Amino acid sequence: MSLICFQNARLIDPQAGTEDPGSLLVQDGVIIAHNPSTVPNGAQTVDCEGKCLAPGIVDIGVKIGEPGERHKESFKTAGYAAAAGGVTTMVTRADTTPPVDTPEVLDFVKRRAQEVSLVRIAPMAALTKGREGREMTEFGFLRDAGAVAFSDGDRVVQDPKVLARALTYAKGLDALVFGHVQDPGLSKGAAV
After folding, report:
1. Dist CA 87 CA 79 (whole Å)
2. pLDDT at residue 175 tops 90
3. Among candidates 137, 133, 131, which has minimal Cα distance to 169?
């Protein structure tokens, strides 16, 4: 049994909107007391020296190179970087090679991430097959396989009928859709 008392911390609670000095008593990774009056015998004490203690950060829209381009970024390297920055969950994008547009590719992503990542992975699936904007992916099957959202990444679904069908279908499944807000016709030849 691991018992740790974190003292002299800035306790941040985003849900309550508070940031107060205090301490936490943690047993086996679970908070069991807030500002305990005494520290139990045998508990390890950590002086946080005024540093922040907060819930883990969820990073939405992380680009990972797996499958296909692990040399750019792998679940392992991204997991190390995320953990070092206080991120406990990465929501990964579907713009990989091949794209995450079938339950089989999604299953690979989940298994690979679970094997090597230090943080939780919540994968997005592609909105359209091949991220080409022409035909919806199988939202229901992908959702059942563990997709937390649908997106074609930085590609825009230019056919309004395809996008309307995808949004209607997603609404019926209570599924989240991320879109890239850009009109290629307006941005053609533009520079920032």
Report:
1. 9
2. yes
3. 137
Per-residue model confidence (pLDDT) at position 128: 96
pTM: 0.80
Question: Are 3-53 and 57-182 equal in CATH topology?
Answer: no
Q: Are 53 and 12 in contact (CB under 8 A)?
A: yes
Amino acid, single-letter form, for residue 91? V
Structural domain boundaries in the chain = 3-53, 57-182
Q: How far apart are CA 106 and CA 188, in angstroms?
A: 33
Domain boundaries 57-182, corresponding CATH code: 3.20.20.140
DSSP-derived secondary structure letter, 112: H
Query: What CATH code would you report for 3-53?
Result: 2.30.40.10
Strands (E) in 15-56, as ranges, are 18-27, 30-34, 44-47, 52-53
Task: Provide mean pLDDT across the span 163-174.
Answer: 94
Write down the pLDDT at residue 51.
94
Strand partners, 91: 60, 122
Q: How far is it, in rounded angstroms, from Cα 95 to Cα 153?
A: 6
Instruction: With beta carbons less than 8 A apart as the criterion, state whether 149 and 176 touch.
Output: yes
CB 87 within 8 A of CB 60: no
Query: What's the chain's average pLDDT?
Result: 93
pLDDT in tens, 15-46: 999 999 999 999 998 999 999 888 889 899 99
